[in-house]
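Please review this one:
***
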Amino acid sequence: MTHLLFESGDLGATEAFLSSAYTPMQIGGRPADTRARISRTAVGGLSVDRLSFGYTMGYDAGCLGKVCLVTMHSGSIVDTTGGREEIYGPGETFLLAPHDRPYEGQVRAARYTITMFDPRLLNRVASLPGEKDVRITGARPVGPAENRRLGAAVAYLRDHVLDDTAAYADGDGDGDGDDLLVSTAVQHLAATVLRTLPNSARADRATPADTRDAHSDTLRRAVSFIEANAHRDITLADIAASVPVTPRAVQYAFTRHAGTTPLGHLRRVRLARAHAELRAAEPFGPTTVAAVAGRWGFAHQGRFAAAYRQTYGVAPSVTLRAAGPG
């Protein structure tokens, strides 16, 4: 994980930094207040940036190559790409631009968050048949509830995964315990993007074969794969390929025969593995609840504790204190 901070009142330095951190761009205008502040937290192909500009800044930028979500906190951003004029204000989360197209507009004395990840993750999460690529076809969420959901997913990733990563470290200082935690959270964000923003995958429909393949043997094979690979970064597409059937057939099989979803079952298995690890730990040794939760993909300790208590009847800290042989 890397951290970066940029603060400057020099427009030339700000333009150079933005071009390096995002894509080549030119800043237009010569405002009186030239203060800018940008902080970045990045891990793997994910980055979450907090930006604050004390002035109106025009920009003309090249292709980002990433899914770029913007969450507005104050001020406004005006997208003028292709001659349009779309204004985004506080409380909105939107797609800044398609990953493979240039864009232009204005930042008007704004404070906002930018979240970027590899667009190929959308394909992996959507699990479309064949070699189809998912394209986001609109910048705004399809409704107010979807806007709130997308904003909440960004905030969860920013505030409970990246900001608190140190609290969920595996204890040996190498950071390898964070991989599953971060990948699970980013998958959740990508899935939320597909549920909230207009995109080509929303029009895809199930086939009769999906229903036909949703039998108990599909469930058995999928469960076996999940239990053998719960420690890995796996998606619905990976589970379906192990059977092999379509992702929707796997979803239907779990709904029909288990009353849950494939990823719901995956979370249940990971919770059980965390429980087993807590029980096997030394009561006053180096193991912590936060480290175990993070190792099994649970970024928010409060939610982990609630799910744990609901399943096992006690707080995870109680299990840890009572752990050990016998």
User: Anything to note?
Assistant: The CA atoms of residues 52 and 111 lie 4 Å apart. The chain is about 40% helix and 20% strand.
